[in-house]
Amino acid sequence: xxxxxxxxxxxxxxxxxxxxxxxxxxxxxxxxxxxxxxxxxxxxxxxxxxxxxxxxxxxxxxxxxxxxxxxxxxxxxxxxxxxxxxxxxxxxxxxxxxxxxxxxxxxxxxxxxxxxxxxxxxxxxxxxxxxxxxxxxxxxxxxxxxxxxxxxxxxxxxxxxxxxxxxxxxxxxxxxxxxxxxxxxxxxxxxxxxxxxxxxxxxxxxxxxxxxxxxxxxxxxxxxxxxxxxxxxxxxxxxxxxxxxxxxxxxxxxxxxxxxxxxxxxxxxxxxxxxxxxxxxxxxxxxxxxxxxxxxxxxxxxxxxxxxxxxxxxx
Length: 315
Ligand SMILES: Nc1ncnc2c1ncn2[C@@H]1O[C@H](COP(=O)(O)OP(=O)(O)O)[C@@H](O)[C@H]1O
Ligand SMILES: [Mg+2]
Prior knowledge:
- The protein is of the alpha/beta class.
- It contains ten helices and 14 strands.
- The strands form three sheets. A six-stranded mixed β-sheet has the order 6-7-8-3-9-10, with helices on both faces. A four-stranded antiparallel β-sheet has the order 2-1-4-5, covered by helices on one side.
């Protein structure tokens, strides 16, 4: 089922047209990686979804309910972690979550139960009584997720939650999001493609105001898969590599051979039929093969190919 729908959303700031007929859907239960360069309009889109900005045209629905600018009705269904979350430094995490729960209209018993549960989920147990002004960036982002989940939303929107974090902080935050996904759909914006590859199952690339590439991550990757097979030789076999490479180059079904130390990239016409012939050839060679793998394109290569179409997709 669809959790979030954007239909032909357009938004300009003065002469600057940021979103142009932007449409996409986020399915229930998925982690949608909303990818785009800095300044491409990710934050603008998310602010429209939570009713903080007014779209010039188009409409947004959360679980079938229309989002209206300034109206908070649909925000009961949505949790939002802004790109730079601001907190009251004099409060502690427990006080802050209680405050957010009250704003959301929750009763004190539910607030206490939910706040305690979330403090554990985001890994802040033991720090919940510390003043927020002493929190690190990573702790603030984690509290931001707890704050966004206090009222049990069906959709969590996180605007670049990992961008300001170090690698350990990023990994921790991605782990939390993976746990959250069990009960909440997530729309997650970023320009860090490695993060998307780690946790997202669906991606949409925002470029020039609309979606330039969209789909299930695995489907996109296999659609752009090149017919290149990577063969890795054992260390002991390296001496025999030149001979093997020469032999491969002579084979009629081999289109290209690139070789560097123990890695050989073999371009073929068909992964199935030619792959079998290649395997037979390798089995008869003096080299020990450690790895035989169809080359997968990385998200980075796909991204570059979409945004700079003159470049060939190479994995
Ligand atoms: N309130 C605003 N007034 C004028 N320009 C804005 C405003 N908000 C964003 N912009 C401009 O809109 C473009 C998209 O911004 P933003 O949505 O923040 O991109 P992203 O989040 O992808 O980095 C940028 O060029 C930005 O400078
Ligand atoms: Mg932004």
